[in-house]
Amino acid sequence: MIDFDMLPLSEDILEALSELKIDYVFQPIFCSDAKTVYAREALMRPKNMTVTELIDRYEKMDKLHVIEVATFFGALQAYENRGYKEWVAINSFPSECMTDEEAEALGACFGDVREKMIIEMLEYPALSMSSWEIKNKSVKSMDNLISLDDYGTGINDISKVELLMPDIVKLDRSLISNIDKDSLKQENCKSTIDKLHSMNRKVVAEGIETKEELDILISLGADLYQGYYLGMPE
Fold this sequence. Notes:
- By secondary structure, the chain is α/β, with parallel strands linked by helices.
- Helix content is 42%, strand content 20%.
- The protein has an eight-stranded mixed β-sheet.
């Protein structure tokens, strides 16, 4: 389990974090050779419930900020403990950002590791522009990267790319499931990849579960690859 006790944070946030019983696993994201690890995505694993149940509970209590802080400090703690060296992708709510004090504490605790973050913007809840502006300023100051998750579903679409200008866009699993058997999906995926490349965005094909899906996505020009076929969370 992640230990939050010794972090240089306010008493209020430390008390809230102490109620969380969470750990992290990491799923690799591969380069175009589908062998070299480009990054590792941190995935929260709460004790005695799913991550969706945990988020739902905290959203109802209007305490998503606690989960946001826990994710950054917990993921970097687990990442550092494992001795990883690649980029670390950390999921972030579009409605939340850390305070200046919390951001400073993150840097004090994790130093160089903090400079290897890919901030992965989730689809939910609704985007807060004030939080985004603070988060984006912090990202640029550290040369971190921004990734847009779940592209092609809900509100994470081309308009969100144009608004946030992420470095990386992750194609949702629904766009690529069984793509090797669906010529229309191949055409749509190719068009999407070409459009994003024209905007100088890297494209991640996520949720790859078969060699056939991987081969098609390589031929369509995706830049990075993630999925159970390539590497399980561990």
